[in-house]
Amino acid sequence: MDAYKSIGLVPNPDGSLTRRSSHLSVAATDEPAASDSAVAFSKDVPLNPANNTFLRLFRPRLLPPNTKLPVILYFHGGGFVVASVSTLPFHETCNSMAAKLPALVLSLEYRLAPEHRLPAAYEDAVEAIMWVRSQAAAEIDGGEPWLREYADFSKCFLMGGSAGANMVFHAGVRALDADLGAMKIQGLVLNQPYFGGVERTESELRLADDRILPLPANDLLWALALPDGADRDHEYSNPLAGGSYQEKIGRLQNCLVIGYGGDPLIDRQRRVVKMMETRGVHVVAKFKDGGHHGIECYDPSHAEAMDDDVKDFIDSTLHNFDPKH
């Protein structure tokens, strides 16, 4: 198979890519532009103009009275190589979560590989975390209005799907030693996290011809995303292969990990969960039969089930939250 073509990529002579997405791209819809049926409003806020990064903010249309909302910093999927906050399934995911949870959802437009190989996406994720920290301290012109009015910065979560879940893991580890001030990261949500390794797992071999993530496409994405010369046992890809952050893993916050038996990555996801549990991390593992990678982007019933899992995890985590912690 042509792995580039299967992902909608055309390689250019200078090493960059032309990306041909099969998904629609949608603009943010702030209150004046929203339809009467809109369940949430959204707007784009610059993060680092030099890197062309920004945050798409989502807030529910119907706000609970006299209540500050949890903050979810969301990282979209796409193998670190494709997609955007404006890609329709990811926009809709955040739109739905903002309304249903309810929460303020901040979706990060991060730099893509191979033009910007890892750790660029992790650096953007940490920069987004520090931007939220600065908002909590009202350091930027009194703060962004939606966050100033509606955010409870003591109730922040990192969430991502696929490559975005990999970013949650790595950004979460990197943020452990940061001074976050009034911002408190209470939990991490890893939806079908994108991890790899040189040795093939049983699920990768069994699902080598998977419709969503066939093995040649998976290998290509890692080759484009990892630092030049690195293989899939690099610490960015394979948390089980050692790395500079190993001693920090046990300090991670509560984690929700969602996976599906029909995903080629399921075996790696189970192994990472076991590794985190062994190190003392409290993990809520929701591994389900059937399905496939990214199923919530294609099947509304699974999108709704994911929202329910995330809501239950956030509610449970915050129920046990000790403000003095």
Layout: helices, strands, pairs:
Layout: H1 3-7, E1 9-11, E2 17-19, E3 40-48, E4 53-60, E5 69-75, H2 88-100, E6 104-109, H3 120-136, H4 145-150, E7 151-161, H5 163-175, E8 185-191, H6 202-206, H7 215-225, E9 254-260, H8 266-278, E10 283-288, H9 300-319
Parallel strand pairs: 5-6, 5-7, 7-8, 8-9, 9-10
Antiparallel strand pairs: 1-2, 3-4, 4-6
Task: Describe the structure in your own words.
With 325 residues, the protein is α/β, with parallel strands linked by helices. 32% of the residues lie in helices and 21% in strands. The chain is built from 9 helices and 10 strands. The chain has helices at 3-7, 88-100, 120-136, 145-150, 163-175, 202-206, 215-225, 266-278, 300-319, and strands at 9-11, 17-19, 40-48, 53-60, 69-75, 104-109, 151-161, 185-191, 254-260, 283-288. The strands form 2 sheets. The protein has an 8-stranded mixed β-sheet, with helices on both faces. A two-stranded antiparallel ribbon has the order 1-2. β9, α8 and β10 (283-288) form a beta-alpha-beta unit. α3 crosses α5. The relative contact order is 0.13.
